[in-house]
Design brief:
The protein has helices at residues 2-15, 18-25, 29-43, 59-82, 96-101, 103-113, 126-134, 197-208, 222-230, 244-249, 278-288; strands spanning 48-51, 54-57, 88-94, 117-123, 140-145, 153-161, 163-167, 189-191, 215-218, 236-239, 253-256, 264-271. By secondary structure, the protein is an alpha/beta fold. Among the domains are: 1-71, Arc Repressor Mutant, subunit A (Orthogonal Bundle), CATH 1.10.10.10; 161-262, D-Maltodextrin-Binding Protein, domain 2, CATH 3.40.190.10. The strands form four sheets. A five-stranded mixed β-sheet has the order 4-3-5-12-6, sandwiched between helices. Strands 10-7-11 form a three-stranded antiparallel β-sheet, sandwiched between helices. The protein starts with a helix and ends with a helix.
C-alpha cells in the first residue's frame, strides 16, 4: 500500500495538481488527497504545499522524492525480472530531438516483440536525463553529445551525427560546401534553448572566432526552428537526424561548419549496476539498429 501512496505523491509533484494527478492515475481527486494525507501521517511531516504554480513539495517532500522514485523504480525492476522482463513499465528519458526523430520507429519494433511492456518517454534536458538515470526514475536515457563518461553510468555510442548550419535553399550560403564561423557574424540565428549541447558547440565556435552570436529567436521545439528557417527568418544549427526529411525533399539545406569540431554521438545511457532482463537487452539492441 505504501508504494501506491508514494506513486500518487510522485504524480502530484510531477503534475503540480491533485486534479491532474487524479486524471493521470484514474482516481477520484478525494482519493489522491487521502493517499497523500495518509503518507504524511506515516512519515510525520507535511509533504506538499500550495504555491502560485500549484502543489509543490515542502522541504520534507523534496527529501522524500528521490527515495520515493527509487523505491518505485526498484519495484518495477523486480516485477520485470520476476516476469522475465516482458511486462511492466520502461521509463526512457530523451532529449526532444531524439524523442521525435530517433525513437518512434525503434519503439514500434520493440512493442511488436514486447506488447505487454508500457513505454514511457520523458523528454528533458541532457542534465535532467542523466540525473533521472542516476536516481532511477528513468531506466534508460538518450542524449546527443560528445562521448559521455561517468563512474556510475554506461554510455553506449549508437551513431555519430554531423551538425549542420541549416538554411533556406535560396540563402546566400546555399551553394557553399562549408560555412566558416566568421561568415556567421551578424547572421540572425534561430537556436534551441541554452541547455542544448549542440547550441553550446556553435556558440563556443563563434566566440573562439571572436564573434558575438546574434541570436534572434529561441525555440524549445524543433518544428518551430525549422518553420522559422523555411520562412527565411534566420539560420539554424541542427543535427542531421533532425532534418533528414527536409534535406531529402530540398525544403532546407544543411552545410557543415569549417574546421575540426568535436564529434557528437547519439548515446544510450543506463546505470552500471542495472540488471538487464531479456526485455531490456532487446531494447538496447533495438536502439543500436
Amino acid at each position: 500500500m505504501e508504494l501506491t501512496y508514494l506513486r500518487t505523491f510522485c504524480e502530484v509533484v510531477s503534475s503540480g495538481s491533485y486534479t491532474r494527478a487524479a486524471e493521470k492515475l484514474g482516481y477520484a481527486q478525494s482519493s489522491v488527497t487521502a493517499q497523500v494525507a495518509k503518507l504524511e501521517e506515516m512519515y510525520g511531516a507535511i509533504l506538499l504545499e500550495r504555491s502560485g504554480r500549484g502543489m509543490i513539495p515542502t522541504f520534507a517532500g523534496n527529501n522524500l522524492l528521490p527515495y520515493a522514485r527509487q523505491m518505485l523504480a526498484l519495484s518495477e525492476e523486480a516485477k520485470g525480472m520476476i516476469a522475465g522482463g516482458d511486462r511492466g513499465v520502461l521509463n526512457i528519458g530523451a532529449i526532444e530531438t531524439l524523442a521525435a526523430y530517433y525513437l518512434p520507429h525503434r519503439l514500434h519494433r520493440y512493442r511488436l516483440r514486447y506488447p505487454e511492456v508500457q513505454l514511457r518517454v520523458q523528454p528533458g534536458s541532457e542534465d535532467g536525463i542523466i540525473a533521472a538515470v542516476k536516481d532511477k526514475s528513468a531506466d534508460f536515457g538518450l542524449i546527443f553529445d560528445v562521448t559521455y563518461r561517468s563512474d556510475e553510468i554506461i554510455a553506449l555510442p549508437l551513431r555519430q551525427e554531423p551538425l549542420y548550419v541549416v538554411i533556406h535553399p535560396e540563402h546566400r550560403f546555399a551553394k557553399e560546401a562549408e560555412v566558416a564561423s566568421n561568415q556567421l557574424a551578424n547572421e540572425p540565428l534561430v537556436l534551441t534553448e541554452d541547455t542544448c549541447t549542440y547550441r553550446r558547440q556553435l556558440v563556443h565556435e563563434l566566440k573562439a572566432a571572436g564573434i558575438t552570436p546574434r541570436i534572434d529567436m529561441e525555440f524549445g521545439n524543433l518544428e518551430g526552428i525549422k518553420q522559422a528557417v523555411r520562412h527565411q527568418w534566420g539560420t539554424a544549427f541542427l543535427p542531421r537526424y533532425a532534418i533528414e526529411e527536409e534535406l531529402s525533399t530540398g525544403v532546407l539545406t544543411g552545410i557543415p561548419l569549417t574546421g575540426k569540431q568535436e564529434k557528437f554521438y547519439i548515446q544510450l545511457i543506463y546505470r552500471k549496476e542495472r540488471k538487464l532482463s531479456p526485455a531490456f537487452e532487446h531494447f538496447i539492441a533495438e536502439m543500436q539498429r
